[in-house]
Every structure is written in structure tokens, then in C-alpha cells.
Amino acid sequence: WILKCNRFAAHLPKLEPYYPITGNAHLFIGRPRTDMFESFIKPFAEYEGWFQIWLGPKLLVATSHPDIMQAVLTHPDCLEKPFLYNFAKLEHGLFGVNYHTWKSQRKALNPSFNVRILNSFIPVFIKCSNLLVNNLEKAVDQGGKMVSVLPYISKCTLEMVCGTTIGCDVLERSGKDTLLHNIDRCFELVAKRMLNVHQYADVLYRFMKDCAEEAQCRTLCYGYFDS
């Protein structure tokens, strides 16, 4: 039945090695994050057009060709978000909501992105960018050790988001480091679930330690903003 439903893609090359039932899931399950990332991006350099990735019974049709990507992302029949978005549990926001709700909400929000309002955000961007540069300078001045820019960029991005939406300096309050850690960890767990087919079913995932940790991270993040 699964093969019959997905026979439209039967002529497309398939990511190898492929095994029945598990598909390509073995490339991601139980592997370090760096290996998972390499396994995920490698086929995009090998295939010029479409290709198949099978995560258990789930077929993903992938491409990195810009013309194909533009055709897909602008086609009205391809705007519904895939099941992977459900793992983020943000179904009431523009990120994860279904297409029909997204379309009406997006139209309502269009006036919020006019030139005048966007220009009013520039001081926020400047302030956050200056803080980012200052923090990176302090990190570099500590002496010849390797510095990961991701934590600094994550903090800067969140400051910009909060400053242009909530309208206050949320990250100037105490507990900001814990908030940033919980946000990063929550997204890390969601991304991990997307690539681990044995975590797809909610009935199984709720018994895993990742589910409990994800729920705790979400609770702490919601509590920070509610307060």
C-alpha cells in the first residue's frame, strides 16, 4: 500500500544504501550529530535533480536544484507543510499551522511588514548587532582557543525577535542563559526526532526520555515569557 501511494516517485533515484522497512533510517539512528548532518547533506551534492529519501515508511522527495525549488515553493498545491513540522508542536503559529489557516493569517499580517514598520525595527537590529560584535570581541580576546559563534548568533537572533515582536528587552532579565539553553535544546530534540523514525509515533515517543526532556524545556520557556 505504501509503495502504491508513492509510485509517482518510483522513477526517481533512491538514496543508497536502502533497506526494506527501515529505508535510509540507519544513516541517522543512533549516530552523532555531525555524522547525521554529513549523511543528510551528502546526497544533495550527488544528485542534480529529485531523489528519494526513505525514513522508515515515510517518503521524502528532495532536491537542491534552485529552479525545482522555486517551482515547488511557489506552486499552490505544494504549500501544505509536511508531517515533520508537527514535531515542533507550534500548530497555532505561522511556522506550523496548516496551509488554509496560514494563508488567511498571512494576509492579515501583511500590513505589519510595510516599509515604515520595517524601518522602525532598524534601531533594534543595530543595537543587537553591536552587542553581538562586542560579545564576540570579548570571546576572541580570551586567547587562542576556538570559539563557536552559534551561541552568540542564537542569542542575537532571539534578542531581535523579542525586540521586534514583544517590544521589550526580554533577554536583559535574569534567567536568560537558562532560557537560551532550553530553546536550543528543545529545537535540538525536535530535529533529532525528525531524523529518527522510531520516534515518529507519539504513542512510543511519550515513553522516551527525549520526550520528557523536551516537555521540561518547553515548560521552562513558556514560564519565562509568561512571567
TrEMBL record:
UniProt family annotation: Belongs to the cytochrome P450 family.
Predominant location: endoplasmic reticulum
Compartments where located: Endoplasmic reticulum membrane; Microsome membrane
Entry GO CC: endoplasmic reticulum membrane
Membrane topology term: Peripheral membrane protein
Cofactor(s) required for function per UniProt: heme
Bilayer-spanning residue ranges: none
Family matches, as InterPro entries: Cyt_P450 (IPR001128), Cyt_P450_sf (IPR036396), Cytochrome_P450_Monoox (IPR050196)
UniProt KW Heme keyword: yes
Record's function text: May be involved in the metabolism of insect hormones and in the breakdown of synthetic insecticides.
Identification of the protein by name: Uncharacterized protein
GO molecular function: heme binding; iron ion binding; monooxygenase activity; oxidoreductase activity, acting on paired donors, with incorporation or reduction of molecular oxygen
Keywords assigned by UniProt, alphabetized: Endoplasmic reticulum, Heme, Iron, Membrane, Metal-binding, Microsome, Monooxygenase, Oxidoreductase
Pfam families attached to this UniProt entry: p450
